[in-house]
Amino acid sequence: MKPRPRYHEPIVAVSAEPFLVTCLSAVYMEKVCAAEQAFVTLATNDSYARGAMVLGKSLRNHKTSKKLVVLVGPHVSDQSRAVLHKIFDEVRLVDVLDSGDTAHLAMMKRPDLGVTFTKLHCWTLTHYSKCVFMDADTLVVSNIDELFDREELSAAPDPGWPDCFNSGVFVFRPSNETYGKLLQYCTEHGSFDGAKAIFLQPPLGQCARYATFMAPRHSEPILMSLAVSLSVSIEEPIRLLRCEGGDQGVLNGFFSDWATADINKHLPFIYNMSSIAIYTYLPAFKQYGANAKVVHFLGQMKPWSYTYNLTQRTLRGDVQASSQPGFLLQWWALYSAEVLPMLVREYGDQPFISGCEEDAAASEEHVQPLMSSAERKQRWEQGQADYMGIDSFDNIQKKLDVFLK
């Protein structure tokens, strides 16, 4: 059998006519390659990397014929990247602060839009003809390759304001021209949906703790003061790690005619079914929920915010925050069966937080006596706060959210 020609060599097809020869050149082959399509997601840290791993596995398990691409930030560990390489066809590092391109210049003008600039890099994947972006906190429960029949910018309505689309799942066409225009829009207009401030507490053992607070744009000085106050209150240094702007506000501002221009670009809700909306309109979920194809874990509590008991197959954490724990269990079943073993192999003897526990750990947690307010205050003053339990950053955040309202 004649070896397959390389892309830079012409492919020659001889027809039945004696002198009719059709040469398919390298240029044609490049166009063929560019016709490939891909699902794209983003992981800015190890937590979201695990979400991306589960998302990738769910796409594979439902027999997608498309390529899988993940954009990763510099904070994703080598071990997580190694696992991502085993699931995705392409793992691309995106470091806006170290890029030296127009995105870096735009970032200097709008530091509140840090992760937004990273996410917008999906438009630079011009070796694909069309892509579907999916947030790392989504889970595919059925094949969704038909989304590639849609055009840019196709997305589902946001449950909070249906005249806006939710940017957790959208169809787009990679284009350097569009990418440049989006960067310019970010610089000039920013995002109408505010920013998230991410605080980092230095590692306790091997685990760094994060907390997220909603704040208006351009409020970095206020957030820095909050970091100082928190440092004093818990006698541990806390620093402002970064401010994340809202990509949804940017994209809705840029594609501002989405609500009225073309109804064909309105994806059915089953392609981006949020757990928040399930709670607000439970009768509709009971009627149509079985048709769901993508579940989006919107809100503060992500699947990886919980702890999963491998023996009992139950969750520990504020499960009431989710109106459909069944989808959470589905996420954890996939993670524990197909993702966790790969993470274990990559970490080897190095300790890491898997998010899973055995019965012994769960039993020990349940028999811990409750402390009085005076005892808890005394432990705080002694620097013995229960960072992994009642005094976790998630709980601190909830208190601050109530205080700042």
TrEMBL record:
<protein>
    <recommendedName>
        <fullName>glycogenin glucosyltransferase</fullName>
        <ecNumber>2.4.1.186</ecNumber>
    </recommendedName>
</protein>
<dbReference type="Pfam" id="PF01501">
    <property type="entry name" value="Glyco_transf_8"/>
</dbReference>
<dbReference type="InterPro" id="IPR002495">
    <property type="entry name" value="Glyco_trans_8"/>
</dbReference>
<comment type="pathway">
    <text>Glycan biosynthesis; glycogen biosynthesis.</text>
</comment>
<comment type="similarity">
    <text>Belongs to the glycosyltransferase 8 family. Glycogenin subfamily.</text>
</comment>
<dbReference type="InterPro" id="IPR050587">
    <property type="entry name" value="GNT1/Glycosyltrans_8"/>
</dbReference>
<keyword id="KW-0320">Glycogen biosynthesis</keyword>
<dbReference type="InterPro" id="IPR029044">
    <property type="entry name" value="Nucleotide-diphossugar_trans"/>
</dbReference>
<comment type="function">
    <text>Glycogenin participates in the glycogen biosynthetic process along with glycogen synthase and glycogen branching enzyme. It catalyzes the formation of a short alpha (1,4)-glucosyl chain covalently attached via a glucose 1-O-tyrosyl linkage to internal tyrosine residues and these chains act as primers for the elongation reaction catalyzed by glycogen synthase.</text>
</comment>
